[in-house]
Amino acid sequence: MTNTVSEGCDVLLRCGGIAHVRPLCTTDREALHELVDRSSERSAYLRFFTGDRRAAHAYMDRITSDQYPGHALVAHLKDRLVAVAEYVPLESGRADLAILIDDAVHGHGLGTLLLEHLALNAAEHGIRELVADVLGENRPMLRMLRDLGLDVTHSIDGETLHVSMTAEPTSRLREAIAARDHVAGRASLTRVLAPRSVAVIGASRDERAVGHKVLRNLIDGGFRGPIHPVNPNATEVAGLACQAKVPDGVDLAVVAVPARHVLEVARDCASAGVAGLVVLTSGFAEPGQRDTESQLLRICRTAGIRLIGPNCLGVVNTGVRLNAGFLPHRPVRGRVALMSQPGTVGAALLERLEMSSFVSVGDKADVSGNDLLEYWEDDPGTDVIGLCLESFGNPRKFARIARRVGARKPILLVKSGRSRAGERAVRSHVAATATPDVAVDALTRAAGVIRVDNVHELIDTAKLLAAQPLPAGRRVAIVGDSGEHLAMAANACECHGLIVPELLEAGAAALGNPVDLTAGVGATEIGSAVKALVASPDVDVVLVVCTSPFGDGLDATRQAIAEGAKGADKTVLACVAGHDGLDGHVPGYAFPEQAVKALSHMVRYAEWRRRPIAPAIAPVPLDRGTAREIVRAELEAHPEGCWLSPAVAARLLRCYGVPLAETVEVSGPEPAAAAAASVGLPAVLKAVGPVHKGDIGGVRLGLRTSDEVRQAYHEMSTRIGQELTGAVVQRMLPAGVEITVGGVNYPAFGPLIMVSMGGVTADLPTSHAFQVPPVTDATDMIGELRCAPLLRGYRGSPPVDLNALADQLARIGRLLDDLPQVAELEFNPVLVTPDGATTVDARIRVVACEPPPSPLLRRLR
């Protein structure tokens, strides 16, 4: 059936251009006929197996009719329909695939992208196999199908190949999509961050004006390409001839005009073929102005322009001597790339760090941290990446990109807003603990991102990572001239989990660690001590701590430290007399605690880099179709959302193979007694309704006879009163370790899973471990708990089945990933024994929400 809606998404092409993909609608008929007319005879023949265009036109009439049975997508490039792709369901879970692309856009990757979208949609709707008949001479189509990433087979019938592909996403498809996304993302920013020419729109002769400052920075920075001031009211600015409009073919346009003129300027840039727009103008995030920002973005997307800002400070790339911003500090070339969303931190970053590039994204209407990670991953001038964010545009995509990029280059993140704003109202203990900020921590930790608390910490850590090799371990040798400050450094190391080992031979005036060279020591002795410690096999890091007065002076001491560390393959850093700076390749810090904090981040990142990346666990069997139907039916009956009944929760968990104690719902003493006889004695009776059942007598254990069960129900009903909405009966299980497993789904962020102590200890201060699904290292997650020794066997108790608990975590993570309507769930307790892990009590709340797009779907946010 033809879609009659126009929603869709913008996508990046291999060439860096932007297309708009949406479902086909009946009003596309004329544009489809025009597409057929523009197609070459060969393209029409390869698609329709005939040179008669009347057949092609008749086909376009059929697919835009109300009776069309398939699913079709169209793509627009600069407001022209340039492609159509479709699948038509056949029998037995199969669907026929076809595609036609404008000859002018062949080779841009649009066909592959449309096939990705179709395959993901088909799998979501139960299609298991995609088939296509392709002429043997149509090598581009065959190559596209082969390289897509799905499992492909084919058979030959004369000149035709019958191609068959599995619709279910494969690991190869995931890898191929990520690789294609990376190529497209980098291509879209190349002319923006490394432009050949720049225009400054709003260039002014007033030296106080933003437009003048940008122009001056470009000139003084020595940008090598043409610089075009644009001002219809001037003939010359800063010695350069002015133009009334942006000239054709300019790569980057910096916009510094009043907000009311920005849309007109953007349209001019679109007509001139500008590749990137940096809008410094503010005011678009104000109430009533969001629509203007949306219009600006739409103009840019339609024209294939990448937009930075609005309300930003500009962009810097020291590799091409580009300083296209209005900050007063001239950037110094270095190895750190930085993105800042808050404008207030830009000046501090430019002033205190040597950098390869800097991008201020402001209101972040288009270009985001995810885009910049794709660009900086392959940037030969960048070794370290820093991000200052107020919000994530697509956190799950950020995690995937960051994990890949972080395996090569460290990523530092300052994420502001450690608050609970914007989350769903939560009602369980688990959800109250698993806050959005906790989710950010879990996501960044799993992706290897170094999350720091503030900009100062980012600067400290970035300069260490940019200057020094990663440490091989946590062993730190501390050397200096003041016992008091050395002790402070040693204490800071212990507080951050670093090791200060005893050294048998320090090669200096004192043995042990820290190595105290005593006050007044000369620079030569300090350098010799550093050199000896660097050579020690018992040391991974050397931290030098020197205080004033200096025996040979500040400069000589710094030079001696640098000489002692020269050629070392170990991490060396220094704290010298309260002077914060970088000398040679040894970074300096004002205070020992400052140096140690940066070092601790570096050590943990190095450990993450050394860990093998575990594949995501794919637990089986899964019945996602039934699970979705269960949730749909419950929300249809309860549009406002609800807690699932024990019976419905059990059905849902069975879809994911989660072991659940046999549970029978009862509504009175006699049904309770009968249920106990059915499940087996001794039995457990639990109230349904109150959260804190144990606090109000809502749990009775070890009921040995039906009479005891009957009596327990009477007593429970009397004690709890009207709050008792029913009860459940279970068989008493053998003793084990009680664990809580739970999770929450945030609309913007996605799912988060938690494990902690359970049972009666669930409310006590204890440790929790969190992970963003899919769960790839559940065993390590369990190992983070302070109660982990109880699981491995403690004081004579037998070890429990950790693999069973890990498997359950993976299954619940998959449930949360598949079902965004599951707002929160809490399994307390999960009883873990030597023979397995069984959920005893399961509470699941569902809330209606829009399902998020597939994480594999390539699209601009």
Can you walk through the features of this model?
Helix content is 36%, strand content 24%. The protein is of the alpha/beta class and 861 residues long. Among the domains are: 9-169, Aminopeptidase; 465-610, Rossmann fold, CATH 3.40.50; 614-661 and 734-861, ATP-grasp fold, B domain (D-amino Acid Aminotransferase, Chain A, domain 1, 2-Layer Sandwich); 662-732, Dna Ligase, domain 1 (2-Layer Sandwich), CATH 3.30.1490.20. The strands form seven sheets. The chain has an eight-stranded mixed sheet with strand order 1-2-3-4-5-6-8-7, with helices on both faces. Helix 12 (395-406) links the parallel strand 20 (384-389) and strand 21 (411-415). Helix 17 (523-535) runs parallel beside helix 18. 47% of the residues are buried.
Quick rundown:
By secondary structure, the chain is of the alpha/beta class.
CATH architecture of the domain at 614-661 and 734-861: 2-Layer Sandwich
Strand content: 15-25%
> Would you identify the regions where 5 or more consecutive residues have pLDDT less than 50?
1-6, 419-426, 506-510
The secondary structure category is alpha/beta
Taking all residues together, what is the mean pLDDT?
A: 90
Mind summarizing the main beta sheet?
A: 8 strands, mixed
> Which CATH class of the domain at 614-661 and 734-861 is shown?
Alpha Beta
Number of helices: 26
Q: How helical, in percent, are the residues?
A: 25-40%
Q: What would you report as the Rg, rounded to the nearest angstrom? A: 32 Å
How many β strands by DSSP? 39
The shape is flat
- Name the CATH superfamily assignment of the domain at 614-661 and 734-861: ATP-grasp fold, B domain
Strand order, biggest sheet?
A: 1-2-3-4-5-6-8-7
**First CA to last CA: what distance?**
27 Å
- What is the CATH T-level topology of the domain at 614-661 and 734-861? D-amino Acid Aminotransferase, Chain A, domain 1
